[in-house]
Amino acid sequence: MGQFVCLLATLVAAIAFVQRTTGAPAFAIDPGKAVCFSIIQVKTFLSLLSVHPSAFSEQYDNFEKPELLEGDIAGFGKYRTAKEAIEALSSGVDRNGYYSFKWENKILYYTISIRFIDWERERIHRAIEDINNHTTGLRLVERTDATVQRNYVHIQRGGPNTGCWSYVGQIGERQFLNLEVPAYPTAPHCVHHGTIMHELIHAIGFFHEQSRTDRDEYVDINWDNIEKHQQHNFEKYDSSVITAYGQPYDHSSLMHYGMYDFAINRSIWTIRPKPLWEDIEIGKAQNMSEVDINKINLMYPPQ
Ligand SMILES: *[C@@H]1O[C@H](CO)[C@@H](O)[C@H](O)[C@H]1NC(C)=O
Ligand SMILES: *[C@@H]1O[C@H](CO)[C@@H](O)[C@H](O)[C@H]1NC(C)=O
Ligand SMILES: *[C@@H]1O[C@H](CO)[C@@H](O)[C@H](O)[C@H]1NC(C)=O
Ligand SMILES: [Zn+2]
What we know:
Elements: H1 2-21, H2 31-57, E1 73-76, H3 82-91, E2 107-112, H4 118-134, E3 139-142, E4 152-158, E5 166-168, E6 174-180, H5 193-204, E7 219-221, E8 271-273, H6 290-299
Parallel strand pairs: 1-5, 2-3, 2-4, 4-6
Antiparallel strand pairs: 7-8
Helix pairs in contact: 1-2, 4-5
The structure holds 2-acetamido-2-deoxy-beta-D-glucopyranose (3 copies) and zinc ion.
One 2-acetamido-2-deoxy-beta-D-glucopyranose binds at residues 130, 134, 193, 287-288.
């Protein structure tokens, strides 16, 4: 409002000035006032300039992007970094990730960053509701009491190139789940129904479907098309680390990689569903599969 008044005043002053120099009858405004108004306006403009960009960056949550395991896993159990997690898994020491890190009392508390804008927040709520609608034992509950609800997932609003990622299972105290928001309307981002649920299912306690102990019967891995330093993303885990709760391998799991993930040459597959003569798709799921739901319900049974 103040800016508008200032703008109007400067305009009036400018007209007066022009009319004066063209010899037409002037308004009763002296040029000194016009200069004053202009200075106020320039100041307002500058302050807008300096306030605006920082206000914009503050829309994102600030954090250091962690190194990630399997593309979107920041750690699990007591392994707070991907490096520790990879070392632990490959050395075979203390291989008891996953089902040891369930949420106590079958309640996963969460908080959602205040920086999310309305449509993003709605999608997050819908994804949480979809999980709650289909699970019988587990509850995702908004955290309301910081003194009692110590362990929780904080869903943060990530800026450009921060990716979509989560920890696997409960790691203790506050743990982050990052959703990169679109930097411009058509930009790739993580605020999709399926992607939000995918990251939440990591937080609930699941790795990717293709890291299952029995995966070699259901997918081929094209190691030649995967950079050496990315090959750890295609590890399968020992049955001492993970369990599929007796559920069949599920190509249509929301937790399955797509065919070209981590490819050196993006037109050649890195992971291919078997058997080859069947028309199977992977990495295309937008929703939890029956198996995804069953596994959550077996990890967190109703009673
Ligand atoms: C969850 O269930 C309620 C009640 O049946 C339904 O109205 C709502 O649309 C469901 N939400 C989702 C995301 O499926
Ligand atoms: C990627 O693979 C395709 C299909 O085999 C091939 O035509 C293309 O030359 C490859 N690109 C590079 C950069 O190697
Ligand atoms: C699949 O997604 C729709 C909305 O996108 C939702 O209403 C429905 O409940 C979901 N189904 C399952 C099994 O998650
Ligand atoms: Zn994932």
